[in-house]
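Q: Convert this sequence to structure tokens.
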Amino acid sequence: MTGEISAIEKYSGEDSEYEHWLLLSVDTGDSSFGDGYFGDSIYVWYDGSRLLMGDTVEVYLIVDDVVEKEFLKGYPSYYPLGTARYVTCTNC
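A:
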């Protein structure tokens, strides 16, 4: 999947094995809702910190789960959540 990083969050759990992991929100630019809507997102657990907001990345991931986010009031959307196997920055 390819997209632009729109948010970066640090892992906040108790497992020290993942203390330096980041959760990337990546906007794919395409929307399953059609033209005029924001692009869909993927949420990626990533073991590293060299990426910045606005970077365009190509991500190879294993999808672990699907998360539900409210798109419009009362209208949920579902997005993949995965663990990155490979992440490369295409505009760095």
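The chain has a mean pLDDT of 79.
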